[in-house]
Amino acid sequence: MSLTQHLSTPISSSSSAFVAHSNFISRTKNVSLPAKRFSICKCVAAASQEAQTAYKTTVSRNANMAKLQAGYLFPEISRRRAAHLLKYPDAQVISLGIGDTTEPIPEVITSAMEKRSRALSTLEGYSGYGAEQGEKALRAAIASTFYRNLGIEEDDIFVSDGAKCDLSRLQVVFGADVTIAVQDPSYPVYVDSGVIMGQTGLFQKNDQKFVGIEYMKCTPENGFFPDLSSVSRTDIIFFCSPNNPTGAAATREQLTQLVNFAKDNGSIIVYDSAYAMYASEGLPHSIFEIPGAKEVAIETSSFSKYAGFTGVRLGWTAVPKQLLFSDGFPVAKDFNRIVCTCFNGASNIAQAGGLACLSPEGLKAMHEVIDFYKGNTNIIVETFNSLGFNVYGGENAPYVWVHFPDRSSWDVFSEILEKTHVVTTPGSGFGPAGEGFIRVSAFGHRSNVLEACKRFKQLYK
Ligand SMILES: Cc1ncc(COP(=O)(O)O)c(C=O)c1O
Q1: What 8-state DSSP symbol labels residue 330?
Q2: pLDDT tens digits for 23-72?
Q3: How far apart are CA 210 and CA 228, in angstroms?
Q4: pTM
Q5: Residues 351 and 259 in one domain
Q6: Which residue has the least CA distance to atom 10 on ligand 1?
Q7: Cα-to-chain-centroid distance, residue 14
Q8: Domain assignment of residue 141, given as a range
Q9: 398 touches ligand 1 (CB under 6 Å)
């Protein structure tokens, strides 16, 4: 049963989500959480708030918000984790669920942020608002580090507070009237931001899809690359490689197919390269390595998973000058307008950290962090392989995608949580083609990853 199915279970009581939740749990082997404990877990529904206040404003709810079927996947997982902790207060819960980094930020990077932060306390070193597009030195360093010889220049780079925020700003640029395609499964933000913008129809329970979104199925059968001959034309194509959640990385040939597909259809690719540094040598690390991509693609990326900046917040988006709307207007100019209206620039301290990330020492330190997580990935992959599962991903991304054929992802998620106290992520939360899979994140301390794998072996031996 998927997240959306489970949360759309018909209910009549005011504590709707709790009822749905306990319905779901009761179907999972050996799990019976006492009802009273659920009252502490604040779940999705607004129904309980309705009961608390009689006063209503006269403002109608944004109908697009009402289309969203359930809470965002990761808050839902956190809620279930909290409920689990209430049930087992002494359990040593290990989280390999939400893709949050755990290793400390390398010193060479934090010391640069410390220096910048201290300078803010001096007359000479103080700075207030900076350029919305980011500091020149950082834009130049991003262009030369990630796009050397690819024709992407300093002024094509927009520094941001993270890739997720930029994805939403891009959606504001595109507006409500575009059609979108997403990989299925995919990082939920592409679908949810499209729904919020009004680019879709309603959610259909039968196929677990929103009307109006083109879901490009990515499964083991097609090597996690969509069969483009069966994909309908859309205005925008969201594509993430290396992929969250499947861990698959597209080859040069596959990305060439994608760029040609976009060009033939006059579409724009929004290429999410948040995990590019995890990709092995020989694989493309940017969409702009593909000839012609500058006329059809935008690339968004992030320091989050390279330098542990999930809390610091720093990313960027590259919008080439060559990318034009149908009337010939440059997409970059509209993106610039939105950035200047909706955003006031990334934190100057974070930008100092970003610049340090791109120094020779910073790059070496980031590679060490990435290699550490890749070591975790190997341990997880070997564990599930040794247990006879079909395991995907891992090699070029910090995510391992494990197949549990003919089982509901949420059932597997609950089984693992209940019996091993390990939090994973149910594949169906990333799209209907994720049903039957779970995603295991390699972000975790080594001792926790080893302990989690020991528990997986006990459960599935
Ligand atoms: C594919 C993908 N894109 C973007 C993001 C968000 O990155 P940021 O922390 O820069 O907002 C994530 C975070 O998990 C992700 O997995």
Answers
A1: B
A2: 333 333 333 333 333 232 333 444 455 557 789 999 999 999 999 976 66
A3: 20
A4: 0.89
A5: yes
A6: 162
A7: 32
A8: 107-359
A9: no
